[in-house]
Specification:
- The complex is a heterodimer of chains A (about 90) and B (about 140).
- Chain A is mainly alpha-helical.
- Chain A has one domain: Helix Hairpins (Orthogonal Bundle).
- Chain A contains three helices and no strands.
- In chain A, helix 1 packs antiparallel against helix 2.
- Chain B is mainly alpha-helical and about 140 residues long.
- Helices cover about 75% and strands about 0% of the residues of chain B.
- Classes of the chains: A mainly alpha (about 90), B mainly alpha (about 140).
- At the A-B interface, helix 1, helix 2 and helix 3 of A face helix 1, helix 2 and helix 3 of B.
Chain lengths: ~90, ~140
């Protein structure tokens, strides 16, 4: 039963990732793309956690922690550069 | 153990559905701020549900420490990044949705309307409500 649930979860998260990529490619402003990149990082962490629950590979969670840290730093850095560009 | 498996499956499905709702909100909402709100809140709750389901499936110390650190970091940084992005997009003058009721950073919309409350309490409230509804009716024309 749990394997079927894992497949459904992977399909749902993959669909969410595709929708976020649509917003990333379409977004009318730069802020929308930053928000989409933030959501993509969170969804990637979710996919890794779901894969950990499905396969039992313990080491995948370290990659999830790393992506969490880098995603937050990337979002703040993008926002900082956008603010600097808007000021000049 | 069967009950624990069912709870795990339910939590994982709930987390995945919440993440999908966050992505749908990011795609369908009409405004940068609405999109940011949808993605920040729903994705945080969805990821928390996914982490709780995984922690119920592997009840070991090392797994729970890693999952708990991911959850704590996401819950600390998701509002922070949403705040930073919202402030930046506000400073850049992002156009708001045309159905926006109140923009407190717009100096034209925040004129104080406190004069009718000075008469008496019983009659002040209906006039205040009437002026509120009138100002609400006239706000979208000001905003657009």
């Amino acid at each position: 039963m749990l394997s079927i649930v894992m497949q459904i979860v992977q399909v749902l998260l993959g669909t969410a990732l595709i929708l976020a990529f649509v917003r990333l490619s379409r977004g009318p402003k730069l802020q929308d793309r930053i928000v989409a990149m933030d959501l993509i990082a969170v969804l990637t962490v979710g996919i890794i956690v779901a894969a950990t629950a499905g396969t039992g590979q313990r080491g995948l969670l370290d990659a999830a922690i790393l992506i969490t840290l880098v995603g937050f730093m990337g979002t703040v850095a993008y926002a900082w550069y956008v603010q600097r560009e808007g000021r000049e | 153990m069967i009950v624990l498996q069912w709870i795990t499956a339910l939590l994982l499905l709930l987390g995945a559905v919440l993440c999908l709702l966050a992505a749908v909100g990011l795609l369908r909402f009409p405004d940068t701020f609405l999109r940011m709100q949808a993605s920040a809140k729903a994705s945080t709750l969805g990821l928390a549900c996914l982490l709780a389901g995984t922690a119920l499936q592997f009840p070991e110390v090392s797994m729970i420490i890693r999952l708990g650190s991911i959850a704590a970091f996401i819950m600390l940084t998701a509002p922070l990044s949403a705040h930073v992005v919202g402030r930046v997009s506000l400073h850049r003058g992002t156009p708001l949705w045309e159905g926006t009721v109140l923009n407190e950073y717009d100096p034209n919309q925040c004129a104080p309307e406190e004069e009718p409350t000075s008469s008496s309490v019983v009659t002040a409230r209906p006039t205040a409500l009437a002026s509120d509804s009138a100002s609400e009716g006239s706000e979208p024309s000001q905003a657009s």
